Amino acid sequence: MENKGASRGHPRRWAILAVLAVAVFVVSIDSTILNVALPTLARELDAGTSDLQWMVDAYSLVLAGLLMLTGSLSDRFGRKKLLVAGLVLFGVASVAAAFSTHSWELIAARAVMGAGASAFMPGTLSILVHVFSEDERPKAIGIWGAVTALGAVTGPLIGGVLLEHFWWGSLYLVNVVVVAVAVLGTTALVPESTDPAARPLDGLSAVLSIVGISALVYGVIEQPRFGWSSSRVLAGLIGGVVVMGLFMLRQKTARHPMIDLAIVRNHRFLGSSGTMAVLMFALTGSLFVLTQQFQLVLGYSPLLAGAAILPMAVALMICSPLAPVLSKAIGVRGAVVVALLVLAAGYGVFALFSKDDGYPAMVVAMALVGVGMGLAQPLVNDVLMTAGPAEQSGLLSSMNDTVQEMGSALGVAIVGSVLASRYAATYAPSGPAPAKRSLDQAIEAAKSLPHPAASSTVHAAKAAFAHAFTASEAVCAGVAVLGAVLAAVLLPRMVAPAEEGAESGAAGDSGRPPAREATV
Q1: HSE value, Cβ hemisphere, 13 Å, CA-based, for 312
Q2: How far, rounded to the nearest angstrom, does the alpha carbon of residue 419 sit from its chain's CA centroid?
Q3: Quick check: 27 and 89 in contact, CB under 8 A?
Q4: Among candidates 92, 98, 218, which has minimal Cα distance to 167?
Q5: What is the pLDDT of residue 491?
Q6: What is the structure's pLDDT at 89?
Q7: Which of the pair, 16 or 146, is modelled with greater confidence?
Q8: Residues 6+ apart with CB under 8 A from 36
Q9: What is the pLDDT of residues 349-379, one digit of tens each?
Q10: CA dist., res. 364 & res. 357, Å (int)
Q11: What whole-number distance in Å separates Cα of residue 276 and Cα of residue 256?
Q12: Per-residue pLDDT for 514 more than 90?
């Protein structure tokens, strides 16, 4: 039964938000917490480079591949049911991961964790649509978005603290405690909601969505290791595009399609999903090179490198609740454009000043990035979640999560490619062969060289990395500017409720499907 709630929202809506924030925080942390443990895992589990990569990527691959299906299932069978089931599966898999004794065991456990996360992630956002009124929904989604980003940003810090005091399995055992709290809170507080007009699931659509998205993500995550011209990368990308094309054709012919193509075609969805992809591309791409700058250039420990990112997290947390205030003043379109330009300015500061001025310049850059992300993400989330009827909020949420996963994967792949290519192009040709591949290999190679040669090798490598860092952050800045243009063209102005009726004839301004009227 659908829980529409009163006009002022569910009476326990803020407690429900707290429970959902706990759930989304644990899955966000797990997207980045493993990075600081990779050297330890290489030693403890005798893991090679390929093993380490799949410890990270198995989670993202399964999560992204299943999101469309699980979001659709949550609308049909109950968002609360999928939320609890996903949390339990995530917790059980976390225990298995903590006590893994071989690389393949940890990879398999991470894959199951991805499946569990795919089951409960869509529900955390779609439930908010049903328990909050339209006036309060942007603030709630802002908090949800802030917690999501905070988890990703603070994952390395939390991982560093745990590794400093406990064995590596603690990174996963902490999940069990958080999951237990989330399950108890969900069971006690969260109301069940479904789509009252739910149709039978189209099996072929489900298979095509899983295969297509998984192939695309596989191609993207393998690119940094094998390059864009690799047969496996091209097979994944081309195969994924072909299968997703078949998926879209199936939605036109199926008796019970998985998604409503009218939603996909409207400006609200196109603008918000494109902008969200840009946000995640820039954030994850920048963090990928920033963590290397902290550890390899500035010499920070994993714990200190995680703590160094805190200015970004603090700015993000402060600004996310302010996003609805800005949108009421200048409209959602204007607010998102301003936020993206602030974001671009932050990446510009990284590119222009950080390599020479060290951490102080980075604090300014991280603060600007946090402000931009904090203002943009909740507003874009809200536009995307109102791009279709509330009854399909589970599917809309899963599409939002899928876009974020794809944007993140592309950010690491493309920005990582820029970093590697610019480093190789500017590194002094006389250095040892391994040093030409990356800064970390240059530092490792220098350990076996006599002092003068070792010092010159590291100096040349850091100089090359500085140029590569500038180019990488410049790419992030450029992408953020393109996102601002996209938002200006496609996002609705989202006028206030009292004015909406007077301007409802401006279809191009709202871009919303007739199934639902919603404002910020």
Answers
A1: 31
A2: 20
A3: no
A4: 98
A5: 83
A6: 94
A7: 16
A8: 156, 159, 160, 163, 302, 303, 305, 306
A9: 988 876 666 788 889 999 999 999 989 988 8
A10: 11
A11: 28
A12: no
Q: What is the C-alpha to C-alpha distance for residues 358 and 294, in angstroms, rounded to an integer?
A: 9
CA 224/CA 415 separation, integer angstroms:
10
What does the pLDDT average to over 133-157? 78
| 8 A C-beta contact, residue 268 and residue 512 | yes
Task: Decide if pLDDT at 279 tops 60.
Answer: yes
Q: Is the dihedral of CA 251, 254, 259, 263 positive or negative?
A: positive
164 — pLDDT class (breaks 50, 70, 90): confident
List the structure tokens of 220: 């993207």
Q: pLDDT of 34-59, one tens digit each?
A: 777 777 787 788 876 667 778 877 88
How far CA 133 is from CA of 83, 112, 353, in Å, comes to 21, 35, 44
Which pTM value belongs to this model? 0.78
Of 14, 218, 54, 26, give the one whose Cα is nearest residue 120.
26
**Dihedral angle sign, alpha carbons of residues 475, 476, 478, 479:** positive
In angstroms, rounded to a whole number, what is the distance separating the alpha carbons of residues 393 and 141? Answer: 13
Q: How far apart are alpha carbons 129 and 395 in whole angstroms?
A: 12
DSSP state of 33: G
Q: Which residue type is seen at 406?
A: M
Cα–Cα nearest to 442, from 468, 461, 466:
461
How far apart CA 178 and CA 199 sit, in angstroms, is 34
Q: What mean pLDDT comes out for the span 80-92?
A: 91
DSSP structure class, residue 2: -
Residue 256's nearest CA partner among 209, 205, 195, 207 is: 205
Interatomic CA distance for residues 65 and 137, integer angstroms: 28
In the structure, what pLDDT confidence band is assigned to residue 125 with cuts at 50, 70 and 90?
confident
CA dist list (Å): 476 to 292, 362, 470: 16, 15, 10
What is the rounded CA–CA span in Å between residue 482 and residue 9? 37
Assigned token pair, 263: 């939603």
pLDDT for the residue 506: 36
- CA quadruple 188, 190, 191, 193: dihedral sign: negative
Find the angle CA(404)-CA(406)-CA(410) to the nearest 5 degrees.
Answer: 115
User: What is the Cα–Cα distance from 306 to 309, expressed in whole angstroms?
Assistant: 6
User: What secondary structure letter does DSSP report for 296?
Assistant: I
